# Entry
Amino acid sequence: MPQNLKAPNFYEDLAEAVHDLVKFSPGGVTARRIAALTSIPYSTLMNGLSGTESNAGCKLPIESLEAIIAAAGGEKFIAEYFAVKAGGVFVELPSMVGDEGEARTVVMETMSELGALCRSFDHAQDKDSDGGKKVTDEELGMFEAQANKLMSKAKGAIVACQRVLERRKAGED
# Structure
């Protein structure tokens, strides 16, 4: 994710998320190129995505939203945005795991990262520690973003294990 594109849980509404998606395209495409790829004049695109009151009359047709997201390379970002809004987590399934050793590695890495996040979160919540007193709402939002990312990774680890078990079962039949 580009440096200026925040984690999806930091966006209040879709217009704000799509505005940043166009400005900080995960695909590395400029806003002018996105406008050209979607056959929308650049000024219309940016004014339509702007949250300023003076641009309130500039509206983008809803039909153009999918093309804008695709041109920016933001399908995964928008899926994460809607998953967070629905109280869930976007799960990107892993590529096929080759063998049991690979599946074990995926699971162990995921569990290690989840453990580190849990320890860090416990420390941040402890109001008696120096860290807990100084944790801001924005930092707690970053914990949430990391937790969502790791939940997706955990689901991927489960899928990897299921694939290994399916292969075993198929070989035993």
Q: What stands out?
A: Residues 137 and 143 are 10 Å apart (CA to CA). The chain has a mean pLDDT of 81. Residues 137-172 form the longest helix (36 residues).
